[in-house]
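Researcher: Can you fold this with zinc ion in place?
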Amino acid sequence: MGTLIIRHGTVIDPARGLEAHRDLLIKDGRIAAIEEKIEAEGAEVFDASGLVIAPGFIDLHVHFREPGFEYKETIETGARAAVAGGFTSVCCMPNTQPVNDNSSVTNFIVERGRAAGLANVYPVGAITHGSKGEQLAEIGEMKAAGIVAISDDGRAVCDAGIMRRAMEYARDFDLPVADHCEDCCLSPGWDMHEGEYSALLGLKGLSGAAEDLQVARDIQLAEVTGARVHIAHISTARSIAFVREAKRRGLAVTCEVTPHHFTLTDAEVYRRGYDTNTKMAPPLRPQSDLEAVIEGLRDGTIDAIATDHAPHHANEKMLEFDRAPNGIVGLETAIPLALDRLVHRGVVTLRRLVELLATNPARIFKLDRGILEVGAAADVTVIDPGRVVKVDASQFQSRSRNTPFDGWELKGAAAATVVGGRLVWPPPLKEHG
Ligand SMILES: [Zn+2]
Ligand SMILES: [Zn+2]
């Protein structure tokens, strides 16, 4: 493997408390030096003048649809969307077909990720067989095969007793539980957040209480079991308050938020008149919840930004609102949205943004990444906070285009992505033929 120098940029690495002009020397997939001025004969050079050099961004929550739904996304197309969006690592939720509930599926995902040779692809194992919420999955065997967390994401684990046992296993295998919180009894079929807009549109509503109840339940179970619980896609003011309090009590509870939940509200469903690209789980919430999300990002209650990248085919999203599947793609819009909405509006500093996208995700799933130090894996995200981009879904690397942000003009973008010492984005010119 060759030698790469990223020079003249501002290195921001919260894990080391470093924020300074530095050059970065990368050799054989590892960081070889971080100094004020580096020269190396014959090295490939990336000029990062005016740009920020950060530890590679890690997305704790994506849905690549392989195996089973390759027409929506494969591990390769998903990994390509990841690096195009500035992510060097992604954690794949297990709701494929078959579900990732045993080591043969885990092995398959690991191998496909490796073969793609783009982002690092980490599998998340199911909590229960088929994510049906009944019997625990083969957690130990999946851990040995490489899972980094367990989750039945897409569904909630309804039975508190099963969740308690899952947390005991997770604790013993040193895995976090990534928790999709949606109380089953309060969510029998819904289209959007329950409120004035669901009433206006005549759509079935989901109360924020469905999330709040399970967040409260699982914080209690985290206390009982000593497990690490990571609340996925937190979206309500009350849930955030519960997490804030859990942290104050010293519990091992963390949470992530999606870019759409810090950008859009349920008013968007109304404004766009049943556009299914505003349909996701959890649903877009009212302004008061969005404000609580912003406050949680500001005060540190929210640990991470994760996309919940959920590709669906255009034909599926073209169905009526109540029949269309939940979810939007997110990998290629997350960084522009985060820079535009959070950094440029003064909600968080660039340094805090790097914590949300790299330092904390690495810590939460215990990935050996998220730091720029000599000897560390050379995963680097270079961002251009000042570049204005217009989102063009037709140019996405993802196989799917289901986004509510098409056409949006945003300030800030990923400029380059280095994975394992290799500049994987932008692609070398020869790939364009
Ligand atoms: Zn979910
Ligand atoms: Zn999800």
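Model: Folded with zinc ion in place. The two ends are 23 Å apart (CA to CA).
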